[in-house]
Amino acid sequence: MIPDFDNRLYQLIEAALREDVGDGDHSTLCCIPADARGKAVLKIKQAGVLAGVDVAEKIFRHQSPNVVFHRHKADGEAMAVGEAAFEVETGVHTILQCERLVLNIMQRMSGIATLTKQYADLLQGYKTRLLDTRKTTPNFRLLEKEAVRIGGGVNHRFGLFDMIMLKDNHIDYAGGIEAAVSRAWDYVQAYRPDLKIEVETRSLDDVKTVMKIGPGKVLRVMLDNFQPAQVKEAVDLIGGAFETEASGGIDLETIRSYADAGVDYVSVGGLIHQARSLDLSLKAVIVK
């Protein structure tokens, strides 16, 4: 669950519209009467997994609360070329001001959801679950992670504030795993008892160190850049004492080999940064 999703979404919508509209949509202001009403349809031009319909409705309602929004398809559904995702009826100024924002968001989200589903489908029948990462577009993480969820993935921490992840640089700066975990645990007890701690390991020796000092403190052990055989060895060594996550270079060709190793989670940054936007268009419906 993304924390405070609706408030974050409306902040994103307002910032994006300010960026695009500025002091006025002069292309519309110059030739369309302010009271003109119209209808438009979201047309699908590329197959994949649809994502962003809920967001599109919220964008239009943000600008025009009385908008008539009729869905033909829902987030997470397969979409085919030639289908319509939704129709919207409201002021023409609202349609034209929101058009590009809606398209940019839905095209990007649908691309991420489509790629995520390809990964998630490969994990069918396994206990292993698919995680995203913080390798996201600045100020657009909210909807990139929502697209991962729609595509069948699981959201990892949203940011630096909702989980402690002791990665290689934290550990090196702190002077080692033992020092980093000890300080993190003291911090959690003093300031945020709800924070969970994850520790990145780079070798089986690191895993053994966490096994020694982590029980009761550490929730999850990340196995970073481990090969599948090493992941299996680490998972067997941990024996369920901690959640396990494999990370680093995992792709569509290798993900099943990590699932075969028995790891609880695999995290794939490419769900977001390697996804390609899908082609959609918003077209005016002219009633004659």
Automatic annotation (TrEMBL):
Swiss-Prot/TrEMBL catalytic activity: nicotinate beta-D-ribonucleotide + CO2 + diphosphate = quinolinate + 5-phospho-alpha-D-ribose 1-diphosphate + 2 H(+)
Keyword presence, Transferase: yes
Main enzyme class: transferase
Record carries keyword Lipid metabolism: no
Quinolinate phosphoribosyl transferase N-terminal domain segment(s): 26-110
UniProt keywords, alphabetically: Glycosyltransferase, Pyridine nucleotide biosynthesis, Transferase
GO CC annotation, single: cytoplasm
GO BP of this protein: NAD+ biosynthetic process; quinolinate catabolic process
EC assignment: 2.4.2.19
UniProt domain Quinolinate phosphoribosyl transferase C-terminal: residue ranges: 112-283
GO molecular function, one term: nicotinate-nucleotide diphosphorylase (carboxylating) activity
Pathway the protein contributes to: Cofactor biosynthesis; NAD(+) biosynthesis; nicotinate D-ribonucleotide from quinolinate: step 1/1
Ranges that cross the membrane: none
Task of the protein: Involved in the catabolism of quinolinic acid (QA).
PANTHER family xrefs: NICOTINATE-NUCLEOTIDE PYROPHOSPHORYLASE [CARBOXYLATING]
Known partners and oligomeric status: Hexamer formed by 3 homodimers.
Similarity section: Belongs to the NadC/ModD family.
Protein name in UniProt: Probable nicotinate-nucleotide pyrophosphorylase [carboxylating]
Species assigned in the record: Flaviaesturariibacter flavus
